Amino acid sequence: MPDRDIRDALGLRPVINVSGTMTSLGASIVVPEAIAAMTAILPQFVEINDLQRKISPVIARLTGGEAGFVTASCSAGISLAVAGAITGDDIAAIERLPDTAGLKNEVIIQMGHVVSYGAPVDQAIRLAGAKPVLVGQATSTHRHHVEGAINERTAAAVYVVSHHVVQYGLVGLSEFVEVCHARRVPVIVDAASEYDLRGFLAAGADIALYSGHKFLGGPTSGIVAGSKALVRNAFLQNLGIGRGMKVGKESMVGVMAALEAWETRDHAGIRARETGYLHLWRETLEGLPGVKPVVEPDPTGNPLDRLCVNITPEEAHITAWDLADALARGTPPVIVRDHEVEHNYFYLDPCNLHPGQETLVAERLTAELTKARNSNEIIATSLAERNARRFASLKRWPD
Ligand SMILES: *Cc1c(COP(=O)(O)O)cnc(C)c1O
């Protein structure tokens, strides 16, 4: 970590991130190789499409695709890939989007994949002028649902890989690809938060999309990889809806450097360090009244475990969400992964910590749990009010 923390100067709280790679917390710790490349390019002019041309083979090498380019985010990648499937390389059509009159514009997606990553997946599809066609039910999709939805207006199909999606009862990627390809429908995979850069294209996807700022530790960006013609058609959207999703030279070289660093990263060493953090936290919490820490694997198979902290409020004297809020309010603020906190558990994610922060997290957990245990009442505020407060506070921004 740098000696001087810029957050002090800005009057921002020095948050410790044990929630994962969150846009709301500034994504990830950018790797030094990317920072150096970004600093080097910022004062220079470049021919921007040539720069993208240089990045394409690097993306291709790491993903196994034929080509690739960098855009603003994985979310932008969804819109651009869908737009490319609609317009092809017709520049007049590209400029006309999101008006798709006279073009194929239906995009198939399993209902159990229509989730929110901070914004709705289906909105990223609709931004391109496409009409999402939701197939199956939230927890049950079969081959016949996908087959039955394909018609002469089908432009593409989107498949989402995420801990957010329903993890059972849906059509798997290979079968999804098989059904779509039988009717010449290209498959776009949203793999924003996946460690595996090759598997989805290898499984037959035509385009795979990644966030540059998640596991890769690049600047905020998105990577579009896959078949050359489809990637090119997505790239051409920079003449249209892609303009508002553009990235500068710094993000382009930053992602390229992060991809190259990925090839030499000590993946096993990082995993071992993260496992050490989990063990420290588990030992810290084990035996405390009303607290049950359990190490759990990542639901989509990323090489990452998290610590699930289960709370019994009657014994711990606090609910999981009140504990999460107390940790976030305190000094230093510790932000936990609380997507499913209504079940009285949250997760500690070890992959975005600077060395030494694991100890601070352990100390803060102990302090808040001790304080709660010593309270005469059980701290249990209303979850509905907690949610309402979050949106109310957003709606008051910037005050
Ligand atoms: C994070 C995420 C996104 C959004 O990625 P950005 O690059 O932040 O736009 C989309 N889909 C999934 C599954 C994600 O996890």
How would you portray this structure in words?
The structure is a single chain. This protein is of the alpha/beta class and 399 residues long. Helices cover 41% and strands 15% of the residues. A seven-stranded mixed sheet has the order 2-8-7-6-5-3-4, sandwiched between helices. Strands 9-10-12 form a three-stranded antiparallel sheet. Strands 1-11 form a two-stranded parallel sheet. It is globular, with a radius of gyration of 22 Å. The relative contact order is 0.15. The mean pLDDT is 97. The site of pyridoxal-5'-phosphate has 12 residues, from helix 4. Belongs to the SelA family. Its cofactor is pyridoxal 5'-phosphate.
Q: Which stretches of 5+ consecutive residues score pLDDT under 50?
A: none
The CATH architecture of the largest domain comes to 3-Layer(aba) Sandwich
Amount of beta strand? 15-25%
Structural class estimated from helices and strands: alpha/beta
Supply Rg. 22 Å
Lateral arrangement of strands in the main beta sheet: 2-8-7-6-5-3-4
The overall number of domains is 2
Order of helices and strands: HEHHEHHEHEHEHEHEEHHHEEHHEEHH
The small molecules bound here are: pyridoxal-5'-phosphate
At CATH level 3, the topology of the largest domain is Aspartate Aminotransferase, domain 2
Taking the sheet with the most strands, its summary is: 7 strands, mixed
The number of helical elements comes to 16
Helical proportion, percent range: 40-55%
Distance between the termini: 30 Å
Shape: globular
CATH homology superfamily of the largest domain: Type I PLP-dependent aspartate aminotransferase-like (Major domain)
Total beta-strand segments: 12
Average of pLDDT: 97
Tell me the name of the CATH class of the largest domain: Alpha Beta
Keywords: Plasmid, Pyridoxal phosphate
Family: Belongs to the SelA family.
Cofactor: pyridoxal 5'-phosphate
GO molecular function, one term: L-seryl-tRNA(Sec) selenium transferase activity
